[in-house]
Design a protein that fits this description.
heterodimer, A: 5 helices, elongated, B: two-stranded antiparallel ribbon
């Protein structure tokens, strides 16, 4: 069957060759077809072309990947994946900024008033609806731990400011409430809660 | 321009002949830089191409010299720039020329782009020429951004943080891309190192694209203030000495404000916060980019509402779109008439576009909550400017070509030159 098709293709090429007017570029094309035709098995040559090209693509990709991948975080950066922090010195109503993986993290000891304010907000007023209860850990409702980067373009918001008593980003004016939820401005999401756990009542491990 | 006779250089000296037979460099230079037939009616807006070539040279030379003293390390970069200014022989001036040179470069490129927009220099057969220009502009923006990060001051650091964060808006692959760009979870030493490497590389890529840009210019030849193609030899003058001298004079005039900035006010266009060393734990209270990015920054900031997709991605799409839309201008403008001089309605929309662009620049420098018109804040009115910015390209240019009745065009450049002062050119 395959042999039949190959013969048919060769026949068609011959017709095309005969129709081509002499002296122009199409003659050249058919001449090269002629050479191609009379190889014992044209399919074998096509296979070699495709196989060579495929190997070439893999080789180029194999060389390109390390050149791109070297830009990814290196071992020394990845080694700083978790930190511990003792929060016993943070008084109610104040906050500290600590560094985790090169980025700042807010640890805020919230007042009861701030917690109540955050919990009184109806969900439909939120751009990124999330309950305050889901943003803290059970039994530690006063401790708000958040990556201190505005979810817009990564500036550090300023605490206890803005219309909602929470955070205000100086870069593009995004405003967060006392639960770190986005309320106004270009930021799309609430401030991110990093993975953390309480080692004791006053000590946490981030990361 | 097929009527133009390309000069045929015939070497007389045997050494020149020997060389020319092997590499026809002298003939090529003569035909492209000396005998190149140029429309005889080019005004001073056309000298900014030459000024830009000059500025690229200035930035490359001063930059290579600065790299001999600069240390691309997060702990030492800030001090090394201060060391350049205080200790290196002539360093204060070299650094000032490079830093203010970026501003002068952008000033010139804006004039050059707006000249092209007014005189329809992007229209057939110059689309590729225009597209190469937009690519150069994009490369310039990247280079300027990388360079701004190198002094590692507070503004440098937070510019790097904010701009790289733009890529995090891409759905799904945003975060891996962000880490790949920064080489970490935050902007840090690896980021500074690679930015230095790229800042050194890109100007040479720009130079290569400039060669293509000039090549694409020399195929159809220059556009000109009346937008009527060259028809005969007497419409043109040879590039040298007519335009070499005119461009040189323009460069000298351009150097007067440039020298004033470099000598007397090297920091006037910068931000004082950049004299505080980068601190990843404190964001300066008021972040603004350099003046030449302000219009686009205002567009990014104006999108502070969710619409189908979230405001961050939407802002980034508008921000990117405001520049990428320039690629499509040759096909968006449907008018057959090139020069704005002969388009009575276009002029109004064009100058409104210029004013709107300057307004966006001003908005970009203000606090979003600042009230400008009664109860309306910068955040509100800048949305209006964003609408006009895009409407100019998407609505005005396509429709004007259909409905506008242009004034009659002169038959040729020579006719228009001889009938002066009737045909004014802005």
């Amino acid at each position: 069957m395959g042999e039949v098709i190959a013969r048919a293709v060769r026949g068609l090429r011959k017709v095309a060759r005969n129709q081509a007017s002499g002296g122009d570029i199409s003659t050249l094309a058919t001449e090269s077809n002629l050479a191609h035709d009379e190889t014992p098995d044209p399919g074998k040559r096509d296979f070699l072309y495709v196989a060579t090209a495929a190997v070439g693509v893999v080789a180029v990709g194999g060389v390109a990947w390390p050149i791109i991948n070297q830009m990814n975080p290196d071992a020394s950066v990845l080694a700083l994946a978790s930190v511990e922090y003792d929060m016993s010195k943070i008084e109610t109503g104040s906050a500290v900024t600590i560094k985790w993986r090169g980025t700042p993290v807010f640890v805020r000891n919230r007042t009861q008033k701030e917690i109540d304010e955050a919990r009184a907000v109806p969900m439909d007023q939120l751009k990124d609806p999330e309950k305050d209860e889901d943003r803290v850990q059970k039994g530690h409702d006063n401790w708000l731990v958040m990556v201190a980067l505005c979810t817009h373009l990564g500036c550090i918001p300023v605490g206890e400011s803005g219309e909602f008593g929470g955070w205000l980003c100086p870069c593009h004016g995004s405003q967060y409430d006392t639960s770190g939820r986005i309320r106004k401005g270009p930021a799309p999401k609430n401030l991110v809660i990093p993975p953390y756990k309480f080692l004791t009542d006053t000590k946490i491990q981030i990361g | 321009m097929s009527s133009h006779e390309t000069s045929k250089y015939v070497p007389t000296h045997p050494v020149a002949k020997w060389f020319e037979d092997r590499l026809p460099l002298i003939g090529f230079t003569k035909s492209t830089l000396i005998d190149y037939p140029t429309p005889k009616n080019l005004n001073y807006w056309w000298t900014f191409g030459g000024i830009l070539a000059f500025m690229l040279g200035v930035q490359i030379v001063t930059g290579i010299v600065l790299a001999m003293h600069y240390t691309p390390n997060a702990a030492m970069a800030f001090d090394s720039v201060e060391m350049i200014k205080r200790d290196v022989n002539g360093g204060r001036l070299i650094q000032a020329v490079h830093a203010t040179g970026a501003s002068m470069f952008f000033f010139a490129v804006y004039i050059h782009i707006f000249r092209g927009l007014y005189f329809g220099s992007y229209k057939a057969p110059r689309e590729i020429l225009w597209i190469l220009g937009v690519i150069i502009y994009l490369l310039m923006m990247a280079t300027a951004f990388f360079g701004y990060v190198l002094p590692w001051g507070q503004m440098s650091f937070w510019a790097a943080a904010v701009i790289t964060n733009i890529f995090a808006a891409i759905p799904v692959i945003g975060d891996p891309i962000l880490q790949l760009l920064r080489g970490g979870f935050a902007v840090d030493n690896p980021t500074l190192n690679r930015f230095f490497s790229l800042h050194y590389l890109l100007p040479f890529i720009i130079a290569a694209v400039v060669v293509l840009h000039i090549w694409a210019l020399h195929v159809p030849g220059n556009n000109n203030p009346i937008g009527v193609e060259v028809k005969e030899k007497r419409d043109t003058v040879p590039f040298h000495p007519f335009y070499t001298m005119k461009d040189l004079f323009a460069v000298v005039v351009f150097c007067i404000p440039f020298a004033w900035f470099a000598f007397f006010a090297p920091d006037i266009l910068g931000h004082s916060d950049n004299y505080i060393m980068a601190n990843p734990l404190v964001t300066p209270p008021h972040i603004v980019p350099e003046w030449y990015f302000l219009p686009f920054y205002a567009i990014l900031r104006a999108i502070d509402f969710n619409f189908i997709i979230d405001s961050k991605l939407l802002g980034v799409i508008f921000f990117g779109g405001s520049i990428l839309i320039l690629f499509f201008v040759p096909w968006l403008d449907t008018s057959k008439v090139r020069s704005g001089t002969f388009r009575p309605a276009f002029k109004w929309f064009y100058w409104l576009f210029v004013v709107n662009f300057l307004l966006l620049m001003w908005y970009g420098a203000q606090e979003p909550a600042l009230q400008v018109l009664g109860p309306f804040t910068v955040a509100d009115v800048s949305k209006l400017s964003v609408v006009y910015y895009f409407a100019y390209f998407i609505v005005v240019l396509p429709l004007l070509g259909r409905f506008e009745k242009p004034r009659p065009l002169p038959n040729s450049i020579s006719e228009s030159v001889l009938s002066k002062p009737a045909a004014a050119t802005t």
